[in-house]
Specification:
alpha+beta, OB fold (Dihydrolipoamide Acetyltransferase, E2P), 5-stranded mixed beta barrel, binds 4-amino-1,4-dioxobutan-2-aminium adenosine-5'-monophosphate, binds magnesium ion
Length: 453
């Protein structure tokens, strides 16, 4: 039976007769022996295997090259070498699949840009192994966080007819040939359909029945912004709570980010050492900082005043009434507050129709959570639960209530104050690992001009 290297290395006593399988990282030959480093992706560390030239299979040692897959049986013994506790003394070795000299990950020290061109092989590098193990643990932690708080997981649809954010950044889904702008009734679903930009509207319907719900799924945006923080396909976590206002929404958002930072410190310690060494020296400190400090809360108008008073010359000047740019967001968290910041009560004019209008008639109960190094990681709001006001918001944003009849219905039948938010999973991972480009925290990035793998 195969034992994963992660468990082999966690042994507290020597063990006999283990089988280990994985990919060769390096091999060094010495007189009558070879030393082979094997990694199986179960953890960051590789296992050193010592192969005596006389053991069965050792005749093929010349094919145990970087990238080859191998199977080894042997005994785990204390290693005399510095820097490792255990090594495996092989009793028999077997070459499973060769890798010739064209294997592109021969040497260390490739650039991230180069590794993106071999997205099918980069999980075999130390960095990407660490990133995707962390991604997996965090995905689990997301479910754990919500399940422990009695949130019900809802699978919202990927194909949808409604533009939740009203930003018109949707990918069309159609089976029409030729003129895709022809009769919508002739299309597959009998209407125009798109890939979802958010599961929120559907999540709201479930919150108005099951109280506390969340979605966790792929989300698509056809924004043509080629930045390090935007992907055309990304994963979003969207909780929605009935009988909840903006303050409750901010409480949950902040607790969620803190819990994810804590989980990373506690459960991804080995991979974090790699991020610390090769990606971002301050990552661990930053996580500890988020776990320990309360988030700052500041109304949008005050955030704008702080930015105006800052005396900084921003690339995009601060304009009251406009969206904050990421340089503004980063100034607030990194320089002014030196803490994660939740900005709330944004101008009505720059936010979607579903946000609840404040009594001032000019702002809505929107909130964004900003973290150092990234800027916005969460966007959310209390929802407009008043029927007349929702219809007025739709008119204000030039939307036809008929297109959203089922969403409007929620305000007709037992409406309740409710609130929720969306957290971009890749943005969170960038924050937690220190990896600076969204393309490097998602297995196969989709960005403008890029969908090869
Ligand atoms: O602020 P956004 O657009 O909010 C919504 O979609 C709401 N419907 C959420 C809700 O209230 N249920 O997006 C939410 C988060 C952002 O804060 C950001 O982290 C991430 O999604 N995000 C992106 N991540 C990667 N690439 C993109 N193009 C992203 N656009 C948004
Ligand atoms: Mg947003």
């Amino acid at each position: 039976m195969r034992t994963l290297i992660r468990h082999v290395l966690a042994s507290t006593t020597p063990r006999e007769g283990l089988t280990v399988q994985g990919w060769v990282r390096t091999r060094r030959d010495s007189k009558g022996f070879s030393f082979v480093e094997i990694n199986d992706g179960s953890c960051l560390a590789s296992l050193q295997v010592v192969v005596d030239a006389s053991v069965p299979g050792a005749g093929q040692m010349h094919d145990f090259t970087t990238g080859a897959s191998v199977s080894v049986q042997g005994d785990l013994v204390a290693s005399p070498a510095a820097g490792q506790r255990w090594e495996l003394r092989a009793r028999r070795v077997e070459l499973v699949g060769k890798a010739d000299a064209s294997f592109p990950l021969q040497k260390k020290g490739h650039t991230l840009e180069f590794l993106r061109t071999i997205a099918h092989l980069r999980p075999r590098s130390n960095l990407f192994g660490a990133v995707f193990r962390t991604r997996s643990r965090l995905a689990h932690a997301v479910h754990q966080f919500f399940q422990e708080r009695d949130f019900i997981h809802v699978h919202t649809p990927i194909i949808t007819a409604s533009d939740c954010e009203g930003a018109g950044e949707m990918f069309r889904v159609t089976t029409l040939k030729g003129n895709v702008d022809g009769d919508p009734a002739a299309d597959f679903f009998g209407r125009r359909t798109y890939l979802t930009v958010s599961g929120q509207l559907e999540a709201e319907t479930f919150a108005c029945a099951l109280s506390n719900v969340y979605t966790f799924g792929p989300t698509f945006r056809a924004e043509n912004s080629n930045t390090a923080r935007h992907a055309a396909e990304f994963w979003m976590i969207e909780p929605e709570m009935a009988f909840c206002d903006l303050a409750g929404d901010m409480d949950l958002a902040e607790a969620f980010v803190q819990a994810m930072a804590r989980h990373t410190l506690e459960h991804c310690a080995e991979d974090l050492t790699l991020f610390e060494r090769f990606v971002d020296k301050e990552v661990r400190q930053r996580l500890a900082f988020v776990v320990e400090r309360p988030f700052q809360r500041v109304p949008y108008a005050e955030a704008v005043a702080i930015l105006q008073r800052s005396g900084k010359s921003f690339e995009f000047p601060v304009e009251p009434g406009a969206n904050l740019q990421s340089e503004h967001e980063r100034y607030l968290t990194e320089e002014h507050f030196k803490a994660p910041v939740t900005v709330f009560n944004y101008p009505r004019t720059i936010k979607p129709f579903y946000m609840r209008l404040n009594d001032d008639g000019a702002t809505v109960t929107a909130m964004d959570v900003l973290v150092p190094g990234i800027g916005e990681v969460i966007g959310g709001s209390q929802r407009e639960e008043r029927l007349d006001q929702l219809l007025d918001n739709m008119k204000f944003q030039k939307l036809d209530p008929k297109d959203y009849w089922w969403y409007v219905d929620l305000r007709r039948y037992g409406t309740v104050p409710h609130a929720g938010f969306g957290l971009g999973f890749e943005r969170l991972l960038m924050f937690l690992t220190g990896v600076g480009n969204i393309r490097d925290v998602i297995p196969f990035a989709r960005t403008p001009g890029n969908a090869e793998f």
